[in-house]
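I hope you will forgive my troubling you with a question about protein structure. The record follows directly beneath this note:
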Amino acid sequence: MVFRPTMGISRNLSSEVSTEALSAQEVWQRCLEVLQHNFGSNTAPIRTFLGAVQPIQLQGGVLTLRVPSQFFYEYIEEHFSAIIVRTLRRLLGPKARLEYHVMTAAEAAPMRLPSQELPPPTVFPGIRSTQTFPTNLNPKYTFENFIEGECNRIARSAGMTVAQRPGQTAFNPLFIYGEVGQGKTHLAHAIGNYARLLHPDKAILYLTSERFTQEYTEAARSKKFSEFLQKLHSVDLLIVDDIQFLIGKQSTQDMFFHVFNHLHQKSRQIVITADAPPSELRGMEERIISRFSWGLAAPLMPPDYETRLAILRFKLQQEGIQIPEEILAYIAENVQSHVRDLEGVVIQLLAETSIRRRELTLSLAQEIVSRFKPLRTRAITVDAILKAVSNYFKIHIDELTGKSRRKEVAYARHIAVFLARKHTRNALKALGEYFGGRDHSTILHSYQWVSEMLPISQDLSRHVQDLERILFRTT
């Protein structure tokens, strides 16, 4: 599909690279230099959105760029096209224009199989995987069943680009972040599965951060460290899920840093997921955080109404079940938390109608949805806890995280630490970073004090319960 800005004229293009590709490349390189000069030190947007762009034709003063998706076209047109067109007219004359060729699904995935089952190596004659270790990928997680919406479009588009050209785009590393239940793990597996489908000759490895830590620890204990390192160094695409759980594990972070550097220098692809953007990973080494900024940090947001409705329809279609539109709309409107909650509602609905033989009605849907009401609508973060405690006790956050030893401040701080330890998965060291750089033993002491006092202090119990209701109430 070809798009043009207001100053261009749309033409049909072949997906073949033109014989003028070299001169098109030279002109495009000059445009990039001008953009870099105009943006100064802030080159991240250029690397992010123009790294995957290819100049495919220069003819009659019209430069045509191939972009990976509609999203890329719209972003480039809005943010970069004015400078690009001015540069083209300086180089090629006053009638120079810019056009876009947005890749179709067939162009983006020429080897895609309808079933999306992972093919054996013999699917591609002459190409056989030499990978000697399991990928750890779950084949049920694909791009086909990852429903696209405004909430995840950037991450999904970047993920497909990375799978098509691992290590060859500006999205290295690709850092995907979002709250619990928004699809980070699904998308991480989808990237790996799609890359494996397109590139069966490449070695792909998916690891949770816990699995990374376990394999590293076991390798050191059993004196098989060189084998562990050799495996990681041989990977073409490394996916590490929930990187935040490396916080507080210094030696494992050191090993990850070494592996990251090796793979990046070899132009191997790295995909990382976390529950927060890099800047909020307190307790992670600064040198690691800085490397996350080399690529693209792509958010996964809670699904909007349209996306929730699309997810429900897809899930039910997979089960071969039809549900009245009124019931679908009710569920999509009232389950606003996680994708997992939507899936949970569908499972409960199927269980009630198929196992207990209950009639599928709006009242049944209302009953099932009410079971999910107590669930929080968002992941609880340390920042949310600090804000809630600050508002509840009328104590500024700077005091809670500062050095004040006033009795009322220390009391509120103990409760904040207790809630953070109980309702987040941060390590003690990471929590210490949130609370003004306190030692992990201080954090543990606060948690233990509240735990011991809760059964015997009515005031403390009431304060904790009040704050948990504030944090977990639906919005």
Summary: Residues 5-21, 108-128 have pLDDT under 50 and may be disordered. The radius of gyration is 26 Å. The first strand starts at residue 2 and ends at 3. The chain has 21 helices and nine strands.
